[in-house]
Amino acid sequence: MRKPDRRLLAAALALALAGCNLAPTYKLPPVPVASSYQDTADQSSAPWQPAQPSDQLPRDHWWQLYHDARLDQLEQQLLASNADLAAALAHYQQAQAFARQARSGLFPQIGASANGQRDHQSDTKPLRGPLTGPSASPANYNSFTVGAEADYEFDLWGRVRNTVEAGKDTAQAAAADLASAQLSLQAQLADDYMQLRGLDQQIDLLKQSTDAFQKALQLTESLHHGGIVSGLDVARAQTQLSSAKSLWSQTLAQRALIQDAIAVLVGASASQFSLAPEIAPIALPRVPASVPSVLLQRRPDIAAAERRTAAANAQIGIARAAYFPSLGLSMQGGFQSAAYPGLFSAPNHFWAIGPTLFETLFDGGYRKAQVRAARAATDEAGATYRSVVLNAFAQVEDNLAQIDHLGVARGDQRDAANAAQHSLDMAMVQYKAGAVSYLDVTQSQTAALDAKISLLSLDTQQLRASVQLIRALGGGWSSDQLASRSATVPAGSIR
């Protein structure tokens, strides 16, 4: 029977070694995932709905659920001009470059060089030939060299491959960070915009109330001049009017602060940026809420934490590989001569080729500490991932509860506002007839104004909660984008 060819055995052994990977098998850190959210049991009147495969949040323009052209314009301006988003994009691009840098280790490193110089030898140079005579070594000579060198490390233990994998995972985490920063900024802008629109409605209400209080003051002054009411009623009417004007000015100040915050988000100078008041109400959208398990694929911060866990796991393989010898192959060759003419002729040719084997025999526990540190970093990344996931579930639950309970509160507050307005109307009629004092009118005015402001505030709070719910659900993002866009800028990012 013919003996196996040694070369075939060597090739088979080399292939087997090339397949070694000392990184542990990666497993996604376990987290408790409920089958549904608590506040989605009753879908009959809720402002959200179960998401179907064809009914998810809009991919790149989730804010269009609010059907507000001005908000859409501002969001587009944010994508184009926000400074924080530009910084996040630059960080992502750095991570991409580092990943490409790591990948270069899979290929041979080839370099070329050329050198031409005039040399002078020292007369006392060690081992120099005779200074005189037929075999004298010249004191001055020329040296011309042209050559190339190639170096390659055989990835026997998966060190290079794990380095590449860790770089890829880190780049994907940075891509998810960019998406998370983009979503956060978009949600902040939408939240500020909802506050601004709510303040516009309050300012309009206070303007109407101020006009009504002004007319009430004029009526009271006329009755006072006729001797029908006392000066106390006039003072009360004046107090009510002045208080409403003060509240109006305070609300204008709040609006100015929110407007300046929006200017910063869209990359504009606050001194040159303004938004015209708009009092038309924004309808609360029906937000598609998926089951909790889907949240793991729809939150970019969860994806970033998961990818960092995978990168940390690959680092264990890199640390383990340091226990084993590294094997490399170096090749060089070229032409060298003391004269430039005929440099590339055969007699001037030189070359060298051979393997390099390196193994650390003693390191004082350095490699052992590296493996321990890599394992601890993986445990830390896994714990961080679990924390991010659990907080994400809590945020969704919080905002679902907010929208639900605020909706109930809004219905009660609307009834209260209607009742307060009816009370005010009756008080004014009775005051004109002389049946009640102006104190009753003042109390009714205060109750009606407070009830209406509270109603507007609940509308704004519910809209803001819907924005935060969309943010908690991941906007229109999906972890599929990490695979499909791993080498490109995520859609919608600043250019």
Give a structural overview:
- With 495 residues, the chain is α+β, with helices and mostly antiparallel strands.
- The chain is 58% helix and 11% strand.
- It is built from ten helices and six strands, in the order αβααββααβααββααα.
- The longest helix is centred in the middle third of the chain and has 67 residues.
Quick overview of this protein structure:
By secondary structure, the protein is of the alpha+beta class. The protein has helices at 6-18, 69-81, 83-103, 159-225, 231-265, 292-298, 300-321, 366-432, 438-472, 480-484, and strands at 48-50, 109-120, 140-154, 287-289, 326-337, 349-358.
